[in-house]
Amino acid sequence: MAKGFMIGVEGRAAGIVVEERGGFRFFASGDVFRQADRRLYRRVGDAERSLRDLWRAQASGHKQGPIGA
After folding, report:
1. pLDDT tens by residue, 7-22
2. What confidence score (pLDDT) does residue 21 get?
3. Alpha carbons 63 and 26: distance in angstroms, whole number
């Protein structure tokens, strides 16, 4: 039976990882984490770190405002 885990970042549901051969496949729950959708991670912790980094990168980009603002 496959194992699955929900991953949250900063209180937001990022998505789930499901165990498969070779690691854990990530399925994004929304657009914020779409860039990582269906990516295979070796460990759940690797997915969590990657998604936190993605969140931080996007959050810092949003502080700059839209292009042309």
Report:
1. 999 999 999 999 999 9
2. 94
3. 27
Q: Using alpha carbons only, give the angle 16, 43, 24 rounded to the nearest 5 degrees.
A: 45
Q: Minimal CA–CA distance to 43: which of 9, 5, 15?
A: 5
pLDDT in tens, 41-53: 999 999 999 999 9
The tokens describing 30, both together, are 């929304």
Coil, strand, or helix at residue 32? helix
Q: Which residues lie closer than 8 Å to 15 by C-beta, 6 or more apart?
A: 6, 7, 26, 27, 28, 29, 30, 33, 36, 37, 51
Mean of the per-residue pLDDT values for the chain? 87
User: Among residues 23, 25, 21, which one has the least CA distance to residue 36?
Assistant: 25
3-state secondary structure of 55: helix
